[in-house]
């Protein structure tokens, strides 16, 4: 069923909805699994920064789930990153984020599902929660179909339909809209997936339960949707221009960093000073993602590729406590010459043999605080590595793990800070500037990131902060201590390939 080809021409669908909670994840994950069961190689994608849904996508398809985020990476990288992930596949399924036209706050369509659909020239299937409506569904769908003529809504899937009579009323109403109904799903408790304070429980934590949930989603979509019609719609997508993203080429092509570093004027003790006569930064000027390369580091030839005098081992945290990571990070580290090895801070008492640097991404260490604390041997190894000046990059959960304590339980003690759970959700995209030089970037490097947590670190920044942020509140954030870069900010290194190269070069020389 289908024939694998280049990512630029692979058939593709975007699964969207009028709002969150309509059933996008159930439909997208179920469709991925149902098509995979029919022998198709399915490429799974997720619009936005979310790490959890791609885990379910990977379980459904047997392939790495990949994110498409026009805010974090820039609109120009959406199609190349898609083509990179979809290379060799028969079909691609892209799960949207929030409502179809919802994106970065105050930025129009930026980072919305609609923008990604347009960048991919992909038809959209609208998943509608029909549980509390009948004829009104026609007005709803008509509005979404007509709102932006550049977005092609090619089909509708009705979710949470109560009965045959309810289905009949809905289909009758939609006849006047001219958009085909490609599926009808009844209420099914078995496809409900458990959630916690930051969304769905990650696949790595649910194991067998997650497999059963994905299987139930597949059965529901297979039984309630016209798969042939959905595949035919996917094949109507036109080819994409340009080549797919490649980690090695990205490292070669990234330009030098901007110098000198900009004046930020952050009003905080210990923040970067303002130059005399300098104009205040324009808070309305957006920070576009600029690829960066390391500045003044040895081991790179004139073509920009690092000389492989030795292959440093970069240990990347994994396991149930640290499930948040973008696949492109490991690919960039490997392309920069590193040997990437995963370790589990819940179980492994030693770092991988020969570790030269550590990357600790996001996850839920607050859920596993007692187990992480109990692994004293590994905590000591990480502290010793950091004390030697080895590069350590930590994001969000990694930041918490490096603190002195988390909810009163001892952590690695690399940072003189304490962390605790909070009732307040911190959520949103951020424009960031590197306040000073670090193992990830030189001072002045501009990046975009995303915060998503219900924890607090005190203090929120060290004497050498990691980032200066402009919105929603002007502040400095994070810690740069020796070779350690720790921050709440999730970043996507495809937007700044030099981050990986700079990190690996530091691993070679530390």
From TrEMBL:
Its EC number is 6.3.5.9. PROSITE patterns: GATASE_COBBQ. It holds the Pfam family GATase_3. It is an enzyme of class 6 (ligase). Its cofactor is Mg(2+). It catalyses: hydrogenobyrinate + 2 L-glutamine + 2 ATP + 2 H2O = hydrogenobyrinate a,c-diamide + 2 L-glutamate + 2 ADP + 2 phosphate + 2 H(+). Residues 314-496 form the CobB/CobQ-like glutamine amidotransferase domain. Pathway: Cofactor biosynthesis; adenosylcobalamin biosynthesis; cob(II)yrinate a,c-diamide from precorrin-2 (aerobic route): step 9/10. Residues 254-307 are annotated as: Disordered. Residues 273-292 have a biased composition (Pro residues). The active site is at residue 396. The record marks 490 as: Increases nucleophilicity of active site Cys. It comes from the Bacteria. Residues 13-198 form the CobQ/CobB/MinD/ParA nucleotide binding domain. Keywords: ATP-binding, Cobalamin biosynthesis, Glutamine amidotransferase, Ligase, Magnesium, Nucleotide-binding. Catalyzes the ATP-dependent amidation of the two carboxylate groups at positions a and c of hydrogenobyrinate, using either L-glutamine or ammonia as the nitrogen source. PANTHER family: COBYRINATE A,C-DIAMIDE SYNTHASE. Comprises of two domains. The C-terminal domain contains the binding site for glutamine and catalyzes the hydrolysis of this substrate to glutamate and ammonia. The N-terminal domain is anticipated to bind ATP and hydrogenobyrinate and catalyzes the ultimate synthesis of the diamide product. The ammonia produced via the glutaminase domain is probably translocated to the adjacent domain via a molecular tunnel, where it reacts with an activated intermediate. The a and c carboxylates of hydrogenobyrinate are activated for nucleophilic attack via formation of a phosphorylated intermediate by ATP. CobB catalyzes first the amidation of the c-carboxylate, and then that of the a-carboxylate. Belongs to the CobB/CbiA family. This is Hydrogenobyrinate a,c-diamide synthase. It comes from Streptomyces lusitanus. The lineage of its organism: Bacteria, Bacillati, Actinomycetota, Actinomycetes, Kitasatosporales. The gene is cobB.
């Amino acid at each position: 069923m289908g024939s694998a080809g280049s990512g630029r021409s692979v058939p593709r669908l975007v699964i969207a909805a009028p709002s969150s909670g309509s059933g996008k994840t159930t439909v997208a994950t179920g469709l991925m699994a149902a098509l995979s069961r029919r022998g198709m190689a399915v490429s799974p994608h997720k619009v936005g920064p979310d790490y959890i849904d791609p885990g379910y996508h990977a379980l459904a398809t047997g392939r790495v789930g990949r994110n498409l985020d026009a805010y974090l990476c820039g609109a120009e990288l959406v199609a190349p990153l898609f083509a990179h992930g979809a290379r060799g596949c028969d079909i691609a399924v892209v799960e949207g984020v929030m409502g179809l036209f919802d994106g970065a706050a105050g930025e129009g369509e930026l980072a919305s599902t609609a923008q990604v659909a347009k960048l991919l020239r992909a038809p959209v299937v609208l998943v509608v929660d029909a549980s509390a409506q009948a004829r009104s569904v026609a007005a709803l769908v008509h509005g979404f179909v007509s709102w932006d003529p550049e977005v092609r809504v090619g089909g509708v899937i009705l979710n949470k339909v109560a009965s045959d009579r309810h289905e009949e009323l809905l289909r009758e109403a939609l006849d006047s809209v001219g958009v085909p109904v490609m599926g009808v799903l009844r209420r099914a408790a078995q496809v409900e997936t458990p959630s916690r304070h930051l969304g769905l429980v990650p696949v790595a934590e649910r194991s067998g339960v997650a497999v059963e949930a994905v299987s139930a989603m597949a059965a529901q979509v297979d039984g309630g949707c016209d798969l042939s019609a959905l595949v035919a719609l996917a094949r109507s997508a036109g080819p994409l221009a340009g080549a797919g993203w490649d980690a090695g080429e990205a490292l070669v092509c990234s330009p030098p960093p901007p110098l000198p570093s900009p004046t930020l004027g952050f009003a905080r003790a210990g923040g970067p000073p303002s130059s005399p006569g300098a104009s205040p930064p324009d808070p309305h000027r957006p920070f576009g993602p600029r690829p960066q390369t390391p500045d003044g580091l040895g081991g790179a030839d004139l073509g920009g590729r690092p000389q492989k005098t030795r292959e440093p081992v970069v240990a990347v945290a994994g396991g149930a406590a640290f499930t948040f990571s973008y696949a492109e990070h490991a690919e960039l580290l490997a392309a920069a010459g590193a040997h990437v090895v995963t370790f589990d801070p819940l179980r492994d008492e030693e770092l991988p043999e020969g570790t030269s640097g550590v990357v600790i991404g996001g996850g839920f260490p607050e859920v596993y605080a007692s187990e992480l604390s109990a692994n004293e041997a590994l905590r000591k190894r990480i502290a010793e590595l950091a004390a030697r000046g080895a590069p350590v990059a930590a994001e969000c959960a990694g930041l918490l793990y490096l603190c002195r304590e988390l909810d009163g339980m001892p952590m690695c003690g690399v940072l003189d800070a304490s962390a605790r759970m909070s009732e307040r959700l911190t959520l949103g995209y951020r424009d960031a500037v590197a306040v000073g030089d670090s193992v990830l970037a030189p001072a002045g490097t501009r990046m975009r990131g995303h915060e998503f947590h219900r924890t607090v670190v005190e203090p929120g920044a060290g004497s050498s902060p990691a980032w200066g942020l402009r919105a929603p509140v002007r502040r400095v954030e994070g810690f740069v201590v020796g070779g350690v870069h720790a921050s709440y900010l999730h970043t996507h290194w495809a937007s700044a390939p030099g981050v990986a190269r700079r990190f690996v070069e530091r691993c070679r020389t530390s």
